[in-house]
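I'll show a record.
***
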Amino acid sequence: MANLASTYWNQGRCNEAEQLDIQVMDMSKKLLGTEHPSTLISMANIASTYQNQGRWNEAEQLFVQVMNMSKKLLGTEHPSTLISMANIASTYWNQGRWNEAEQLDIQVMNMSKKLLGTEHPDTLASMANIASTYWTQGRWNEAEQLQVQVIDMTKQLLGTEHPFTLSSMANLASTYRKQGRFNEAKQLFVEVMDMRKKQLGIEHPDTLASMENLASTYHDQKRWNEAEKLQVQVIDIRKKVCDAQHPDTVRRAYTMIRGT
C-alpha cells in the first residue's frame, strides 16, 4: 500500500497518495506502535504529500514529530534524523522563514559531510537546499557557486538524467535568469524540459514546472509568441490533471525517500 501511494505521489496524484498513506499510518500505529520505523516513514510520506499540496503547517507538524522520535530512537546524527531535519527546513523555506531554514540546512550539511562524506546524495541535497535559501534571499553568486558544485557531483554520481540532477540544473538555470543571463538559462531549461518529457511524460507536475520556467525565460527575452504557446499548453494540461498547487519554478531538493 505504501509503495502504491508512492507511485501516486510521483505521478502528482496527491489526494490518492494521501488517502493510502493515512491508511498505512493508522495500521502501522495499531500493529507496530507509534515509534516503529515503518510508522515514522508513513508519517513522513503524508507530510511530503502535504508539502506538495502547499499545506505547510500540517507538513511541519508531522515532520517535527518524526524528527523528535528519530532523535529519541536513533540519535541526533542518524541519517533518518538528518532527513527529518531537512524536511522541517523545507517547510520553513516554503513559509518564507529563510533564516530558520538556512540554520537547519547548514546543520544537516555539516553532519552529512561528517557522517556520509561530501559526495553522498544526502549531503548534495543539503547543499542544494542552502543554495535555494540563498536564491530566495537574492544572494545569486553564493547560490550559483553551490549549485554548480551540486550539478558537477550529481552528474558524476547519479548521471545526467537523474531527477536530482535535473532539479539541480533547473535551479541553476533560475539563478542565471535572475542574473540576466537569459541564453544560459534557456539552454538549461530546454535540456531539463526535454528530459522530463521523455522520462515522466508531458502531464507530470515536474514537466509542467520546467515548461513554465522556459516560458518565463522566453518572456524575459521578449519572445512573446514562444512564451504564449508554452503557457497555453501548461494551462490546458493543468486544467486536465488538476494539480494546480504543485510547487514550481525553483524547487527545493527534498531529501525524504518515500517508500518502505
In short: DSSP finds twelve helices and no strands in the chain. The radius of gyration is 18 Å. The domain at 2-241 is CATH 1.25.40.10 (Serine Threonine Protein Phosphatase 5, Tetratricopeptide repeat).
